[in-house]
Design goal:
440 residues; alpha+beta; outer membrane lipoprotein receptor (LolB), chain A; 13-stranded mixed β-sheet; 32% helix; elongated
């Protein structure tokens, strides 16, 4: 009989090895079950608290994205709405400390009403440009140039240019280019500057020009804004395709004005601007100051995308009936505005005459030749010589007889000013007179 329990027996060794292997497999299976039943090991630095924080950060990020998206939508829907853009642009225009403007108005007579069939033909263009500099609140400066060309009824055809300047409480004005007209030769008065002291000259109310030029107070501005809320001037706004103005991108809007509200607004702010109560007659006269167009054509406005300022305004109007004196007019106007809050240069002319000096020239005859000093300026004669052309006759005598005091020849009979100055000197009552004496 074989003893299986003795060591070294090959049979016993193989049995023990198989049994050990079975035990090891069973142990491994049990550990796997335990591992499946127990939680997974955590990585270094990871914890339930941190996972909750990550969820909060993600939720906050989503909220911020929604807020930004909503804010962007609100920006386009509210802040960039046509009403808001135009309101801010108008406010910037009103509060600008300086600016440059220029434009043109084309006026044509489209025909006449039956009440006035003999109305004169008008086809003219008015060009204008100017600067305003109010950076020094105590001493604002401004300039304005006006050019008129075309056909102006009985005045005829021709170009004329006027210029005005305002600085140091003085207004200067001159005709820088005289129109060519036989009936009214204004050539000698080109660049003849006249000055007006805005702090001294008073109107019928006892107010000076400076009184009217004083800036509006905050209370007055508030009152005007309240009136504007009661009578809004724009009744329709239509955005148009974006455009380029002066090389800058601009938003383009088309507006329709409520002219009934404009009349009411004008009536309401007049006493605020005048800083006094208006009489019944004055209030009645205000009705005719703003004519109502025959058609309510839209007004185009361009607003800069860069700084939100108004850059260009364009309009078309037709006016007829009593507002136009029985005639029908068509006008097209354009206005451009640039150089917001930039320095402007406005200077006084080298020479000018006050109204009192002009009055003295119209009465004084310094060389006692029968021709007042203002007439000497008109005929371009020497105010210190009695006989400017040296023909043996005093200047005044020549003019009174229809002759040119500055050289040979007669004066045109249609020369209204020449005939006016040809009247014998009567400083208190100069009257026009047609020369009738034959001069030999």
């Amino acid at each position: 009989m074989i003893n299986s329990g003795q060591p070294g027996n090959p049979v016993d060794t193989e049995a023990e090895s198989a049994q050990a292997e079975a035990y090891r497999q069973a142990a491994a299976a049990g550990q796997a079950d335990e591992a499946a039943a127990s939680p997974a090991p955590t990585a270094p630095g990871d914890s339930p608290a941190k996972r909750r924080l990550n969820w909060k950060v993600a939720a906050l990020a989503v909220t911020l994205v929604l807020l930004i998206a909503g804010g962007t939508a609100a920006y386009f829907l509210v802040y960039l709405s046509p009403e808001r853009v135009l309101y801010r642009a108008a406010d910037k225009l009103a509060s600008a400390r300086s600016l440059h403007f220029e434009g043109a108005v084309d006026v044509k007579q489209a025909g006449t009403d039956s009440k006035n069939p003999a109305a004169e033909r008008i086809d003219a263009t008015v060009k204008y440009s100017g600067d305003y500099d109010g950076r020094e609140t105590d001493s604002p400066k401004a300039s304005l140039k006006l050019g008129v060309g075309g056909t102006l009824g009985s005045v005829g055809q021709g170009d004329a240019e006027l210029e005005f300047r305002y600085l140091r409480k003085t207004i200067y004005g001159a005709m820088t280019k005289a129109p060519q007209n036989k009936m009214l030769n204004l050539k000698p008065f080109e660049n003849f500057w006249i000055s007006f002291d805005t702090a001294k000259e008073k109107d019928s109310d006892g107010k000076t020009v400076d009184d009217y030029l004083k800036p509006l107070t905050e209370d007055e501005i508030k009152k005007i804004k309240d009136v504007l809320k009661q009578h809004p001037l724009v009744k329709e706004i239509k955005p148009q395709k974006d455009d380029q103005i002066g090389g800058e991108p601009a938003r383009h809007y088309r507006l329709k004005i409520d002219y009934d509200n404009l009349q009411e607004f004008y009536q309401a702010i007049a006493p605020i601007v005048a800083r006094r109560d208006l009489t019944a007659e004055e209030r009645k006269s205000l009705r005719g100051d703003i004519p109502t167009p025959k058609r309510n054509d839209p007004i185009d406005v361009w607003v800069s995308k860069r700084d939100g300022t108004i850059r260009k305004v364009k309009s078309h109007d037709e006016i007829s009936g009593e507002d136009a004196g029985g005639m029908r007019f068509v006008s097209d106007s354009t206005l451009t505005i640039t150089k917001y809050d930039e320095p402007m240069s406005v200077s006084a002319p080298k020479q000018s005459l006050t109204f009192k000096q002009l009055e003295r020239e119209a009465e004084a005859d310094g060389d006692r030749d029968g021709l007042v000093d203002l007439a000497e300026r008109y005929f371009e004669t020497d105010p210190k010589r009695q006989d400017s052309d040296g023909d043996g006759h005093k200047d005044g005598a020549e003019v009174q007889r229809g002759y040119d005091p500055s050289g040979p020849g007669r004066l045109p009979k249609e020369d209204l000013l020449g005939n006016y100055f040809g009247t014998p000197v009567q400083p208190t009552s100069l009257q026009p007179r047609t020369p009738s004496v034959t001069y030999q």
